[in-house]
Amino acid sequence: MTIQRPRLAAFTRRALLGAALGLALAGCGSPGGNPQAPKPELHVMTSGGFTAAYNELRPGFERASGRAVKTAYGASMGNAADSIPSRLARQEPADVVILARPALDALVAQGQVRAGSQVDLVRSSIGFAVRKGAPRPDISSVEALKRTLLAAPSIAYSASASGTYYETELLKKLGLEAEVKPKSRRILSERVGSVVARGDAALGLQQVSELLPIEGIDYVGPLPAEVQQVTVFSAGIATASTQPEAARELIRYLNSPASAPTIAKTGLEPLASR
Predict the structure, then answer these.
(1) How far apart are CA 263 and CA 62, in angstroms?
(2) pLDDT tens across 86-135, in order?
(3) Structural element, H or E, at residue 84
(4) Is the CB of residue 68 less than 8 Å from the CB of residue 41?
(5) Among candidates 205, 209, 231, 207, which has minimal Cα distance to 102?
(6) Which of 57, 97, 154, 247 could pair with 237 in a Cys bridge, judged by C-beta atoms 3.0 to 4.6 Å apart?
(7) H-helix or E-strand containing 45?
(8) Residue 160 CB contacts under 8 Å (≥ 6 apart), including other chains
(9) pTM of the entire structure?
């Protein structure tokens, strides 16, 4: 035993020294010396057109970045309490906002989003849906669309980009405003597909990417090309963001070629950077 004690003591000193060195190195690599300190949450506001793609992509970004993302959902435009413009006006926390490009540019003009931070993510088309199992109307041509709109007992449309186009432009183009607008209902703070699934409207119009995830409806198809309106959805960094670099990291992730297949399967056309 008299021979082993010095060896044991030397081993113990080496072990303690190694442990102390490991702790010191860990402290150097983390602010405050805490290697487990969580990164601050990133706050995102996104409109419905990009929601399905975003919800699929977000977990991958959280795993890769080690940063939790807190999300608020709302329309690109309008004065509903949960619309993105209303949320920003109330000064809700936001680092990244994702919405229709015209609405995003309006927020830049108002000083709510940093000028030059806008990045186009996707192109989105407008489509129609009916309640699951209901006869699918013909919208394959402009004339067929006119007949369908005239025959529909009720029509639901969104309070955001697609609905604004429907009530201010599409019906005028078709020459049906007087006949069709009175039986059309503008939907606030809810997906049009959900209204159609309940049977509260016979026909629903919204961005294709917002219709496809809804259970209880059948997607009929897009507007005819002659009267289709494609909306670009874009991301920008909120002026009030306290984490602009992390915000840019998320936008790059969403706009990467690797994210494109996930985006495409939700009914959107990705505009991924090459």
Answers:
(1) 17
(2) 999 999 999 999 999 999 999 999 999 999 999 999 999 999 999 999 99
(3) helix 84-89
(4) yes
(5) 231
(6) 247
(7) strand 42-46
(8) 47, 48, 49, 75, 76, 77, 78, 83, 100
(9) 0.81
